[in-house]
TrEMBL record:
Keyword Transferase among record annotations: yes
Binding, 3-phosphoshikimate: 21-22, 26, 165, 167, 313, 340
Function in brief: Catalyzes the transfer of the enolpyruvyl moiety of phosphoenolpyruvate (PEP) to the 5-hydroxyl of shikimate-3-phosphate (S3P) to produce enolpyruvyl shikimate-3-phosphate and inorganic phosphate.
Name of the protein in question: 3-phosphoshikimate 1-carboxyvinyltransferase
Binding site for phosphoenolpyruvate: 21, 92, 120, 167, 344, 387
InterPro entries reported for this sequence: Enolpyruvate_Tfrase_dom, Enolpyruvate_Tfrase_sf, EPSP_synthase, EPSP_synthase_CS, RNA3'P_cycl/enolpyr_Trfase_a/b
CDD domains with a match to the protein in the record: EPSP_synthase
Pfam families in the record: EPSP_synthase (PF00275)
């Protein structure tokens, strides 16, 4: 479905974004392993996390809707062998976390996904999980899904992440809950730490020492309610929209401000963005607060490569900001973006060119020369990727824009375009 967004003259207002996708996936998984009933409060109900809900139901958890919340009756560590394959659809996080979790379970499991997910690398979890004792096979020797997995009989290993990936770290920590001995993940570069925070929330074994994260076999643990903060990655679209649109001020409330997620704020600040944020709650668990963004005269910057894992899903919307900035923005460290839902480096370059922006693309970097062609009538090509659809809808907003296959946004944010239009209407 094509969607037309008229030119935005001003964006004004405040909003709450849907629940955090990473925390929702993990909350559903851990509550399904817990004993008794617990609620996930304000979870994300979108394509990716509904795939997790269905997978955990197929593994025997009882999950029911309660208004905006979900009530989960867990299995108490032993999941059920499902009768059919588990379809992770578009969700990379789900497939990799399930590979880890099911490696620790007795039984036979098959994981598949949509065309995009079946092209994404799975050897990054298959190799270390095999070293722990799991049997995992798949296309091209286990590099691609469908994956066939037989779990049980694990032993702990120490594993240094070859690429910064919270999904791989989390897969190994979940497997480690069922392994003999200690499982240690060493992350040379920090990545999002939601799994570690949730292990603490549920009282699961966890020890951290600098870059080393350790876990070991758990006993049964009781369910506990969990509040899901607003998703910073979803908030990021509105922040950049306000920065690049004249006469704008947008405030996002109740949003997660976990420092392992908010690298974008630092980069936007360095670009001259008028941005303010404040942590208001969540001392233990996840920090939550408010972010305000106002129209700003942005300038190009050289992004610090070490920040990329702390803003890995925000690079498309950073490119949207760079398109409207004065001067050049250089973004290094992008090799992981090549293996997301789409090749995001290529998708970003394509959509920037549609705005008349000059862009140079390297194997793992982008150089963006700020300057949108006046009078451009951009058409966004999402490449079957939710973040690309939303980021470039934002990039074209001051001009008016046509978004092809806009429904891809429903993977992480079903109400995105309505929420965006709500800010115009008030403008
Ligand atoms: O652990 C997670 O919830 C996620 C980790 C990141 O992926 P990688 O672990 O592949 O970097 C991110 O891109 C994804 O959207 C969610
Ligand atoms: C990369 C993403 O998700 P996943 O890896 O779970 O598909 C994303 O949401 O941008």
């Amino acid at each position: 479905m094509d969607l037309l967004l008229p030119p935005a003259k001003a964006l004004r207002g405040r909003l709450r974004v849907p629940g955090d996708k990473s925390v929702t996936h993990r909350g559903l998984i851990l509550l399904s392993l817990a004993e008794g009933e617990g609620r996930l409060l304000y979870p994300l109900k979108a394509g990716d996390t509904l795939s997790t809900l269905r997978a955990m139901q197929a593994l025997g958890a009882e999950i029911t809707e309660e208004g905006p919340h979900l009530r989960v009756r867990g299995r108490g560590l032993r999941l059920k062998e499902p009768e059919d394959v588990l379809d992770c659809q578009n969700a990379g996080t789900l497939m990799r976390l399930l590979a880890g979790l099911l490696s620790g379970q007795e039984g036979f499991f098959v994981l598949t996904g949509d065309a995009s997910l079946r092209r994404r690398p799975m050897d990054r979890v298959a190799l270390p999980l095999r070293a722990m004792g799991a049997q995992i096979d798949g296309r091209e020797g286990g590099r691609y899904a469908p994956l066939a997995l037989r779990g049980g009989g694990l032993r702990g290993i120490s594993y240094t992440l070859p690429v910064p990936s919270a999904q791989v770290k989390s897969a190994l920590l979940l497997a480690g809950l069922f392994a003999d001995g200690v499982t240690e993940v060493v992350e040379p570069v920090p990545t999002r730490d939601h799994t570690e925070r949730l292990f603490r929330h549920f009282g699961l074994p966890l020890e951290t020492e600098g870059p080393r994260i350790r876990t070991w076999q758990t006993g049964p643990f009781p369910a506990r309610d969990l509040v899901v903060p607003g998703d910073f990655s979803s908030a990021a679209f509105f922040l950049v929209a306000a920065l690049i649109t004249p006469d704008s001020e947008v405030r996002v409330e109740g949003v997660g401000l976990n420092p392992t997620r908010t690298g974008l704020l630092e980069v936007l600040k360095a670009m001259g963005a008028e941005l303010e944020w404040e942590v208001l709650e969540g001392e233990e668990g996840e920090p939550v607060g408010t972010i305000t963004a106002r129209s700003s005269a942005l300038k190009g910057v050289e992004v610090d490569e070490g920040l990329i894992p702390l803003m890995v899903d925000e690079v498309p919307v950073l490119a949207a900001a760079a398109a409207w900035a004065e001067g050049e923005t250089f973004i290094p460290g992008l090799s992981e973006l090549r293996v997301k839902e789409s090749d995001r480096v290529r998708a970003i370059a394509h959509n920037l060119r549609a705005l008349g922006v000059e862009v140079e693309e390297g194997p793992d970097w982008l150089r963006i020369k700020g300057g949108v062609r006046p009078g451009a009538t951009p058409v966004v090509e999402p490449f079957h990727d939710h973040r690309i659809a939303m980021a470039f809808a934002v990039a074209g907003l001051p001009l008016g824009v046509r978004v092809r296959e806009a429904e891809w946004a429903t993977i992480s944010y079903p109400g995105f375009f309505e929420d965006l239009k709500g800010l115009y209407a008030a403008g």
